[in-house]
Design brief:
two-stranded antiparallel sheet, alpha+beta, 10-stranded antiparallel β-sheet
Length: about 200
């Protein structure tokens, strides 16, 4: 129960901490009018990328950790990402569903009676897209919003690779994503939170 209360508080803080300004569409033909804008900064926003921009298909249980301030939360989740949809099912220690997030290009639906309707699930989807979608599409939509996207990749001696994705507002790095074999770390320096995703992707 304490974990559930913390998750509720964490999501509420993260997703309601944004202002409003002009929406910049990543793909107007696929972005439905029912979607809320995603504010990367307080004044610069994007709409979500289409699911066809996914880098590779994923259908696997992952271990998820969130850190905000002095608080931490962790849980397993089933992540499905393909060219038609993006879904995340959050599971508790007993394997019971705590919430399910579904995105299908035109609509984001967050199915859970435990979370307030005011939570903007688009922000969760955007973070996942920054981690798992094609860098060329991420770069395009962020640059249209007046932001800079920097990507780099290095090969390790064991044949694995280390990947870095960063979002800048001017000279300020506001988001950094570090990917290695079986591990993704997203740090949002502007909003003060981080995610770790461990599993198969």
């Amino acid at each position: 129960m304490k974990k559930l209360i913390f998750l509720l508080s964490l999501l509420t803080v993260l997703l309601l901490s944004c202002g409003s300004t002009k929406v910049i569409s990543a793909d107007a033909s696929l972005s439905g009018s029912s979607l809320n804008p995603v504010y990367i900064t307080d004044k610069k926003s994007i709409t979500l990328l289409p699911t066809r921009a996914v880098e590779k298909n994923i259908d696997a249980v992952q271990h998820f950790k969130a850190h905000f301030g002095q608080k931490d939360f962790e849980s397993d989740c089933l992540l499905i990402a393909d060219s038609e949809k993006l879904t995340v099912t959050i599971l508790n220690n007993f394997g019971t569903t705590m919430g399910e997030l579904n995105y299908n290009n035109n609509l984001v639906v967050f199915n859970s009676d435990l979370f307030p309707k005011s939570i903007k699930a688009e922000y969760i989807v955007a973070d996942i897209q920054f981690c798992l979608y094609r860098t060329v599409d991420i770069k395009k939509t962020l640059e249209e919003a007046g932001l800079t996207f920097v990507f780099s990749q290095e090969e390790n001696p064991d044949g694995t690779s280390m990947e870095s994705r960063s979002i800048f507002d001017g000279d300020q790095e506001i988001v950094r994503i570090e990917k290695s074999s079986g591990l993704i770390l997203l740090s949002n320096f502007l909003r003060g939170y981080s995610y770790t995703l461990q599993g198969s992707f």
